[in-house]
Amino acid sequence: MENNFLQLFKIPETREKIFRTLGLLVCYRLGFQIPIPGMSPEYLRQTGDQGIFGLLSALSGGAIGQTTIFALGIMPFISASIIFSMLSKVSPTLEAVAKEGAAGQKRINQWTRLAVVPIALIQAIFIYTGVFLANREQMVVSQMQTRPVALAFIVITSLVAGALLVMWIGELITEYGVGNGASLIIMAGIIAVLPSSFAQLTGNPDFWQILIFMVFVWIGTIFVVVFMHKGARRVPIQYARLTRGRRVYGGQRHYLPLKVNMAGVMPIIFASVLFVIPGILFEWFGWARMRTIFQTQTGFVYVTIYMALIFSFSFFWNRLMFQPEEIANNLREHGSFIPGIRPGQKTAEFLSNTLTRITLAGAAFLAAIAVLPAFITQNSGMTQSMQYFLGGTSVLIVVGVALELVDKLNAQLVMRNYEGGQAVQKGAQGRGKASWTKTEAKQP
Questions:
Q1: Measuring CA to CA, which residue among 59, 386, 390, 365 is closest to residue 219?
Q2: Exposure of 361 in the CB half-sphere (CA atoms within 13 A)
Q3: CA distances from 227 to 315, 388, 400 (A)
Q4: Dihedral sign for Cα atoms in the order 367, 372, 375, 378
């Protein structure tokens, strides 16, 4: 592993991509040091609980509730990507465009970027009315408190511009760097809270006990997340054997991998968003008791509704993204079949039943990983940001992105070694052929 890590920096192309990625991530983090015009710099330096927006900040790589231009993070782009992913499976027009290959995907990506503007505008208005107006005295300087229209324009415009700039940085990372830009931005936003959280823990008399407890919880969570992330049900696929003249094609067996956690972190994101909206509405209407019920992460009502939403969205997302009928038709058109299962409707039923069982296991894992860390870290003396990082959702994102990044770097190493081996082999063959020709030419 050490040799592979050092070999990454020996390859000029890979080394440049890594440094470009790190540089763009540094530029992304610098945006959190630029306050919105008219906002109080003292409020920006305050750290602590962000209330109901803490989890959304962790999921979006932003800092919702703070007065920076990058407060929205990558959340508008993620929202637009999710919307178009769902529409491409529901709308026949978008589905036809998606099946056009690279050209169709390029058009959908362009529509996604255009959709970021209205989504960012709606989310900026939502954040302004839900956060900035409620904390105007602490957030806004005294000169701007008497100008509500100008304040709203400056805050909303700055948040939208910051969201577009973050999207542009993510696109640059995807095109010129290593890995998916949006995923790396979310991971960077989650990891960035660690130094400040550790700084707050240093004054705690039980610092070492909390640190040891945190390390054990973190290692255990990572082990479970990696185990479930790599888990898959491999469905055997047999290709029909065809004879063309003297050659025989096909007859090989491959596998269709169905991942246990096929939905990823999407069900948790959907459930978290739905929990934020009622909390804000209850706060506006002054229903403090109902707001407390929806914010108590270890309460019976919160846990029950949260787990039910995760199960529902897991089945919804998997059924939307993986359609057994379409897979069965594609297998039949390409002359493939599942051993022991008739092609067509029987194959679709088999895939549907398999998907249901796998989704049940994956949804149970997501529900456990989203709920249990709140009980484990309760009354542990950790800061709220540290609890968000140790929560299963943040670890699930960080570990998933890290595994994806490692796979891409390994793929580049394999490609580099393969090309080098091919070049050496061709060179050796060329030298052997040249020497043979020269020898033959000398013979009478």
A1: 390
A2: 16
A3: 21, 21, 11
A4: negative
The stretches of 177-206 forming alpha helices (DSSP H) are: 181-191, 194-201
For 12-74, give the DSSP string: HHHHHHHHHHHHHHHHHHHGGGSBPTTB-HHHHH--S--GGGHHHHHHHTS-BTB-BTTTTTT
CA distances from 40 to 44, 77, 143, 196, 409 (A): 7, 28, 11, 20, 43
pLDDT tens-digit map of 148-164: 777 788 888 988 998 89
Question: Which own/partner contact pairs does 344-349 have at CB distance under 8 Å and 24+ positions apart?
Answer: 348/324, 349/324
Query: CA nearest 40: which of 172, 135, 176, 150?
Result: 135
Domains of the chain are 14-192 (1.10.3370.10), 204-429 (1.10.3370.10)
Neighbouring-strand partners of residue 255: 236
Q: What is the dihedral of CA 317, 322, 325, 330, to 10 degrees?
A: 160
For the chain, the distance separating the N- and C-terminal CA atoms, rounded to the nearest angstrom, is 56
Q: What is the pLDDT of residues 255-292, one digit of tens each?
A: 888 888 888 878 887 787 777 677 667 767 777 677 67
- Please provide the DSSP assignment of 244-297 as one string: ETTEEE---EEEEEEETTTTTTHHHHHHHHHHHHHHHHHHHHT-HHHHHHHH-T
Task: Supply the DSSP symbol for 130.
Answer: I
Angle at 76 between CA 72 and CA 82, to 5 degrees: 140
Question: Global pTM?
Answer: 0.74
Measured CA to CA, the distance from residue 151 to residue 375 in angstroms comes to 40
φ/ψ of 337, rounded to 5, equals -160, 160
